[in-house]
Amino acid sequence: MSMFKVRSLGVSYGGVHALSDVNLDVAEGQLVGLIGPNGAGKTTFVDAVSGLVGARGRVELDGEDLTGMPAHARARRGLARTFQSSELFEDLTVTENLRVTAEQPTWVRAFGETFGRRTPPPSAVADALTTLGLQDFADASPAELSQGQRKLVGVARALAARPRIICLDEPAAGLDTTESAELGRRLRAVADAGTALLLIDHDMGLVMGICDHLVVLEFGKVIALGPPSRVRDDLAVITAYLGASAVQPADAPVPDGGTPSSLTTGRPGVPSSAPETA
Amino acid sequence: MFGTQPQQAPSILPSNAVTVLGVTTPVDRFILTGLVIAVALALGALYRWTRFGLATRAASENEQAALLAGLSPNSVSLANTLLSALIAGLLGVLAAPIVQVDSVTLPLQVVPALAAALFAGFTSLWIACSAGILIGVMQSVVYYLSTQSWFPTDNGNAMPGLQQLLIFILMIIALYVKGAGLPRRGEVVEQRLPAVPLPDRLLRPAVLATAAAALALIVLPFDFRQALTNSLIGAIIVLSYVVITGYVGQISVMQLALSGTAGFVLSHLATGLHIPFPFNVLGATLLATLLGVAAGISALRVHGVSLAVVTLAAALAMEQALFTNTSFGGTAGVTVPPPRLFGVNLGPGAAFRGLDGNEPSPLFGFLVLSVAAALGLYVANLRRTGLGRRMLAVRSNERAAAAAGVNVRGVKIAAFAISSFIASAAGTLYGYNFGSVSAVRFTALAALGLIGFAYIGGITMVSGAVIAGLMSTEALIPHALDKWFGIKGSWALLFAGVSLIVTLIANPDGIAGANHRRKKAKQAARAAKAAQTRAENATPDTAGAETAPTPAEVAR
Question: Contacts of residue A96 in chain B, CB cutoff 8 Å?
Fold first, then answer.
């Protein structure tokens, strides 16, 4: 039943195991969150499934084995992704950025087009811009956009390919709280329309709020998975995010070094249910 | 001042000889090798253990972070430039008695040196040093083998160009060992290339420019007619740079060598095999295009500077192995019979001689002009098509392009094919223009000069190619300078060198780019003004003009 299947994925850089034996399933129209502390291997996971980094294991989309395919072949089969730092094509306008993914002609066709007149963009481009609320920026150059808008264009570019699944690498980083909530609403709509999403983000409000299912990585291994309500209270997850001392009800304040102060949304401090799952 | 003849250099090192293993060897060879190793060791120590070395490594890894750490990347870079110039000068003085000192040999010594640097990934001193010495040894061995009786010969002389071919092959090996398909995460492949504006209108400027050139071909006196024809051919070659460097960001030095190859092949097809006019040109162009694609494929794993180095080596290999080989080309030149279509001569010696009745015929000018106009339109239109967008996507960001479903290697091969085709077509016109093809017109140094002109004109735009063509050797601008002001070509080249540096610093998108920006800013200012008056007329309170882009926004 799962449309996107990853089995025993492993990546090593030299002697360091960036990912080991990771399994992951995403069903059609499902919104799966992939979370974990910095350096857990989340981006490496996306790089590996999208073919930008060599990996062991197996990646399957709609029953087709993508293992060993180059990145562009995976993209053309419906596996899209975004980048942490947007990585827009700086020399192209926003519409042209989207057209690169939306148009995937054969070589003969592409060569024939170079002798023809210019063509209007395919409808997928306008659809993706509307979905992300970017209609007003269609002719802008990426250099004119704010960081948040660039992130949205990155998502729109992935969406314009009409993919089966999009791996979103921190789309909400650089957005403020209202923008982030707005993005969450739009992502939920994309998933409900049938495109599966794999969401990586540190904004726990966003992740907990919209995901159907969560997978937690630490040191390249899956340490927990399940619906958000269960993962939120998982002892291993809390330890990974807050350190072992956080599990004990201690008087000392929890160190807050860039990690979210709590996995629960809007409630600071140690989750009260933590000892129960222990 | 110095002339083009080889200069005598006094020996600084002792010139006596010693006998090692039964072979008499001048002792300075050993001293020189020892010195090279000593310099490498000293540099290694300098970069490893001193504060200056630490600063240099920091600045080369991350300029911004170095800046934040209180280092000045500019002064670090200046100090390193001085150091490298000092070492190069020192070794040049010491090696002068061994190598030939003239205006061509010594500058091209840089190619085997760059091969060693490629092996070292431009970072490891000891690999560079040992690879450099090994390459030198291998070149000497090839030279020794070429004196043997079994060695293949060309007109009684040893086959030329094998040393250059060896270097090119070594580079390809180095790239396969060290190179990667796509740049990795966080790998800096930043190369600031000028923007590639989307042309709004194509037909009107194309028709105007073509009509003006056609009129000029009829009314101009014969020498200016010749210069204009040269300019057009130069512009076509630069068009090939617009595709490969301007659109795809790959610096290829071998385009002029491909032109030469096409010219030589045309001569063989026309005189040897008697293939008639349009077909011999087509055959020669396609054959040279295939060669360009093959060289491009072997260099697919490299980017930026390394690609420039590899294609420079490829250009040298073609120059030495093909052009100076008398069975293919030769420095004396091979003749190219004029093009004839249905019995009508279309070459420079055609019957129609313009207003002054001299050669070259405007008819040949029209032939060149129509090819230039067609290829110029094609290249400008390419920017507006899907393939053009994918080329720019590859230029901006290869990783993101691959993730967006763009076949990066395929796009690069397509660019090499289009660019090689254009350069090869220019080569056949070149052959017709002079009635012959000779090696001296297609040297690697001439190719580097042409790339310089392309940058000054604007390497990302067709109008830039036209400007570059007008400035190139024996083209309209140098000819007018010579004729009216008595300024010789060599001074024009010096001027071009200076203006290239000015261009890179002050105006990276060249003359054409600056012109385009000025026009855009004007348009935007007009639009802003119109929006403002409209807003004032409708509702004086609302700031409707804010929605119109300001000139500064559009210009960037």
Answer: 198, 389, 392
